[in-house]
Amino acid sequence: MLVEARFQGPDGSGNGGWSAGIFAALIDDRGPVEVTLRRPPPLETPLTAADGEVRDPDGQLIAQVRRVEPVEAVVPPVDRATAADAARAYPGLLDHPFPRCFVCGPAHPDGLRIFPGRLPDGRTAAPFRAPAEVTPATVWAALDCPGGWAVLAPGRPYVLGRIAAQVTALPRPGDECVVTGLAVGGEGRKAEVHTSLYGADGALLGRARATWVALATA
């Protein structure tokens, strides 16, 4: 088990959604499965897995994986034109805590380039063109950052702490999809968010609920 360098999120570690999708395969990468990240997933590091736990070569716990009840949370869709309009105001284009993030980083040379902008009702939305190679981890990744950007703000970076996802179907390479996100609660440094991915025909392809954790700032 390996998180390749191109799937990075925060500098020096794996994108949370992609990593969680890889780890979910211990049970079922289409879910419903919940992955709790205990440490930032290291890049280009052989990881071992047993009994629902992922550990690094030093034995440190990286993630815990467990089966959960079906994920019922769904964020309503928008049409692709509305999502594209929202993406033009994506705040990460000007101020991004992790600009080389595989999912939402504008500086990543071959990332997914999902740029979620805020809608008037508080949801985030972004268009998403499925890449040439699509796996369940691709859907997990797409369901990651659009939720985070429902709570991210300048000077207030968050990282994924836990995500439970359910993949109904995979988009076909090149499909023009839409992803939506919504903050639904939180307390202290934790924020609870939901995300949904819709295919080119409007069908729900995947859904997730997640906990994001604000990083301590100086």
TrEMBL record:
Superkingdom of the source species: Bacteria
InterPro entries assigned to the protein according to its UniProt record, in alphabetical order: HotDog_dom_sf
This protein's name: Thioesterase family protein
Organism: Micromonospora chalcea
